[in-house]
Hints:
With about 150 residues, this protein is mostly beta strands. The protein is about 10% helix and about 35% strand.
Amino acid sequence: MIYLYDNKRKKIGVLENSHNTKINETINTVWGMSFEMPINDKKNKLIQPFGYARYTEEGELYRIMPQTFESDDKGHIIYEAEHVLAMLIDKVLFGFHQVGGRGYYTDQVIRYILSKQNDWILDRCDFRRQFEYGFEQESLLSALFSVPKP
């Protein structure tokens, strides 16, 4: 079953007839999910571009992509979704940003990056390093993925 949520992340339905769900959880990439629905299922109208879905009620949240609705020759619609972490691709650090260094720790660097958007916050950081970073014209996701590299 797939659980659906609207843009405000309020649960709007459960897709009991969903099947062939595939989840791609490759390390250091944005995860993906795909699932199929019968083309004549009335709940297809609940599935909206940029709406949200979960494979389990407490599982990871995915954003349904608009250009990936396609039907197969068996009478099913195939939906593609990307992990909500990909929302950080939508925001860019314009110009040059230099952050970190002596007295400025990893959690502060991550909070600086996340301060450029409104969807994500850092709860806890298990690293306490003092590396300096430079970002120029990078998406927030790219900047965030570069933090653990040193």
